[in-house]
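Dear Dr. H.,

I hope your travels went smoothly. While you were away I took the liberty of generating a structure for the chain from your last submission, since the lab meeting agenda had it listed for discussion. I wanted you to have the full record in hand beforehand rather than looking at slides cold. The sequence, exactly as received, is reproduced here:
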Amino acid sequence: MFGLFKRKSKLEKLEERFKKLMREWHALSSINRAASDRKYAEAQDIAKLISELKHEEAA
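The corresponding predicted structure, in token form, is as follows:
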């Protein structure tokens, strides 16, 4: 119950965005290949940011 008002960290927000983009990428993969490729590229950019944040937290 106390987690109800907890703000999301930058890492949590990026992970949610990544998951959303991957769902969109999968949905578009059979409909519109160009849009699908753009979503995948954007998701990969966010994956790099997530990796960098995790690396910073570990250091």
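Two observations you may find useful: DSSP finds two helices and no strands in the chain. The mean pLDDT is 92.

With kind regards,
E. W.
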